[in-house]
UniProtKB/TrEMBL annotation:
PANTHER family tied to this protein: OUTER MEMBRANE PROTEIN TOLC
Keywords: Cell outer membrane, Membrane, Signal, Transmembrane, Transmembrane beta strand, Transport
Localisation per UniProt entry: Cell outer membrane
Keyword Cytoplasm recorded: no
Major location category of this protein: membrane
Signal peptide stretch: 1-22
Organism whose genome encodes this protein: Aquirhabdus parva
Name of this protein: Channel protein TolC
Keyword Acetylation attributed: no
């Protein structure tokens, strides 16, 4: 008799049918971090965010401008005779001119630039929070892809096992029909069940191939073997085991909400900056200029040569700009109100999402326990029916129905286990606390981890 894989734990079956080298979740994430351009894009976003404040701060720091030039000049002026004692002034004059100068400006009072700097700091924090959100989403996506492959593998093994068992049963029923021990309807029922199992196996193969391609697209390599989810998966309630605590954690830690909060602060600072357009801007300045004319000995040319220096305070006050300042300030006020309303709406949505995920994880934990008991009951029921069928007390229809219940129980157990893991990761991501420590904890639930050397695609 063939080995009855129905009675073996699925993880044991998967370990028996996979390579000894398996890539675990942490290795997969590190590989995706190296090869997935989306991870590189997140790093580029962080770099962009860091420059925002430096650009805005420049408006508050000294500005230094240096200029210079060399020219050949021609000047044609009507001759002017002052008296017979003085030479005639004017006429055609040509000369060379060398000019250079420098000006240093330091803002003393620029309320608009100051609040633009505050807005830029909030924008930088907002962009960094968005990068954190993208990083979490990418981490979650790769982790889900990893466990979707494991789920598809387990589903395929179940389908293959059931198909093989039904093929064997079909051979037995045909043999019994041949000697007249059973009616033909039993054979037809066996064939229908086997054909259904074949269809499920083909569907499972397609789902596995699709899940693998999704994971390979993130890692940039073809991963042939993955560490499996162990049978001793600890099924515990989320910590803290309090739905209100998770809701508050999401409001405080969710990077999307953090980004929206900083966006509101940036809009408020921008509004204040625009309102500052009614105030003057005052600068301290110092300048130096040096002009040297040569190539002509005329008095006019000589008088235009020389050096000049100046130190002073200058003010610029725009008294009227056609209503632009007032309209811009009102527009910024509406934008601030809009961002505040978006923040409130997102807070409610994300808090509700996190609370729902908390309850879902608790439900998944209960489902896993119930599914384990269901599998144990289905296995015992199948053994009883199989024994009865071997002595003629049970029909083939009873045996096939019992086997179908066992297959469904196994499949529900697998789904509940992967739902528990994936929903746990989603819960941490929704609360804004999904990081490598959480991934490491989940990685410890895997068996068969070892270094893998996947081939480049």
């Amino acid at each position: 008799m063939l080995l009855n894989l129905r009675l073996l734990p699925l993880t044991t079956v998967m370990v028996l049918t996979t390579s000894v080298h398996a890539m675990d979740l942490l290795e997969t994430l590190h590989l995706a971090n190296q090869n997935d351009p989306n991870f590189a894009a997140v790093q580029a976003s962080r770099g962009l965010a860091e420059q925002t404040t430096a650009i805005a701060r420049s408006s508050l720091l000294p500005q230094v401008v240096v200029n210079g030039g060399i020219s050949r000049n021609s000047w044609n002026q009507d001759p002017v005779t002052i008296s017979s004692a003085f030479p005639t002034v004017g006429g055609k004059t040509s000369y060379n001119s060398t000019v250079w100068g420098a000006r240093v400006t330091q803002p003393l009072f620029n309320w608009s630039a100051y609040h633009q700097f505050k807005a830029a700091k909030s924008q930088r924090s907002r962009d960094e929070a968005k990068a954190d959100e993208q990083s979490q989403n990418l981490m979650l996506r790769v982790a889900e892809s990893y466990f979707n492959v494991l789920r598809a593998q387990e589903t395929l093994i179940l389908a293959q096992t059931r198909e093989a068992s039904l093929n064997k049963n079909l051979e037995e029923t045909r043999a019994r029909l041949h000697v007249g021990l059973i009616p033909k309807v039993d054979v037809l029922e066996s064939e229908a069940q086997r054909d259904s199992a074949t269809s499920e196996r083909l569907t499972a193969e397609n789902q596995l191939n699709s899940a693998r391609e999704t994971l390979n697209a993130s890692t940039g390599v073809r991963v042939d073997s993955l560490a499996q989810l162990g049978d001793n998966l600890p099924i515990v309630a989320p910590i803290p085991n309090d739905v209100d605590a998770w809701g508050k954690l999401a409001i405080a830690k969710n990077p999307q909400l953090i980004a929206l909060n900083y966006d509101t602060e940036a809009n408020e600072s921008n509004r204040t900056s625009l309102r500052s357009g009614y105030l003057p801007a005052v600068n301290l300045y110092a300048s130096y200029n040096d002009q040297n004319n040569s190539g002509n000995s005329s008095v006019a040319t000589a008088l235009s040569s020389g050096k000049s220096a100046a130190v002073g305070v200058e003010a610029r006050w725009e008294l009227y700009a056609g209503g632009r300042t007032l309209a811009s300030e009102r527009q910024a006020a509406y934008q601030t109100d809009l961002s505040r309303l978006n923040l409130q709406s997102s807070q409610r949505s994300i808090e509700n999402q996190t609370r729902t995920l908390f309850m879902t994880v608790n439900t998944d934990a209960s489902r896993v326990q119930a599914s384990r008991r269901n599998v144990a009951s289905a296995e015992m029921a199948y053994n009883v029916v199989e024994s009865g069928y071997s002595v003629g007390n049970q029909s083939m229809v009873d045996l096939l129905a019992s086997e179908a219940r066992l297959y469904a129980a196994r499949r529900d157990l697998a789904d509940s286990r992967y739902d528990y893991v994936i929903h746990s990761l989603r819960l941490h991501a929704s609360a804004g606390v999904l990081d490598e420590s959480v991934i490491t904890q989940v990685n410890n639930w895997l068996v068969g981890q070892s270094k893998s050397s996947p081939n480049k695609r």
